[in-house]
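Final report, closing paragraph on structural work. Over the funding period we assembled a curated collection of sequence-structure pairs, and we close with a single example.
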Amino acid sequence: MKSWTYLKGLARIAYTNMRFLKALSGDVTTLIALSIVLGTFSAAFITTVLLYTEVVSESLYAGINLANRLQLPSLKHPLGTDHLGRDLLVRIIFGARIAILVILTSVTIAVVLGTTIGLLAGYIGGYVDLIVSRIVDALMSFPAVLLALAIVTVLGPGLESVIIAIGIAEAPIFARLSRGLVAVEKENLYVEAAKAIGASHIRILVKHILPNIAGPLLVQATFTSSSAILWEAALSFLGLGVQPPTPSWGLMMAEARAYMRVAPHAIVFPGLAIFLLVFSINTLGEKLRDLLDPRYRALMSKS
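Its predicted structure, as stored:
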């Protein structure tokens, strides 16, 4: 019986993936966006492995060569060099590690923290729901960037502080979303049936309610990923995030702003990397939202 259930689960996953690939097949923009996102993840993974195994050293992206400073794009340096003679293409590729690390960690913090609070508030209801809702509303009344700046100011500059700040600043969005979804789902008959057979509240939340609200949470996590990239870039640009010589796209733009007139490429290419990744993630998020929309699925099934 367990093996049959397992096989049904695999079949459901395979069907979902086939439907996703079918939806992508005729959408060139989404295919390009997917390629950019996968390429960025691949660059982050490969560079991390190379550094961890000491195949390459930090001098590859941090080594100073003033004789090559502010060079324009060429065959030797396809994207040119910065004010310290460092190859921009190499630094942008290694900077992908920071972008992906921020996405994976800060969004995970936001999803876990916010969803847990929202699940409990929506399921318990009453005064707990009222108090949590008012706290979430109060937090969301502040611009997320101000909340992140306040947290980084308290914790001090650094990548770890940025990750924690983004995770906490984005958590109220997931708390509000999950709370509203749970408030609706807990009134369904399958929840009453689970209670009738003696299922615990934790089991009902984790096994029954959470899978049914995972779709909207996944879509929101996608959009939050693009926001996290922008927050990290902004905080690093202000000197509160990643510290030199570690390459971060926002930090690279900050270092190049003094040379905009003589070497505009040094600030344009890191900015272009941020734009392309954010645009690609948002494009995939919109496509995912459409695929999870029952009306869109019905339209796709008829085509």
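The first helix runs from residue 2 to 25. The domain at 29-38+75-302 is CATH 1.10.3720.10 (MetI-like fold). We thank the funder for supporting this effort.
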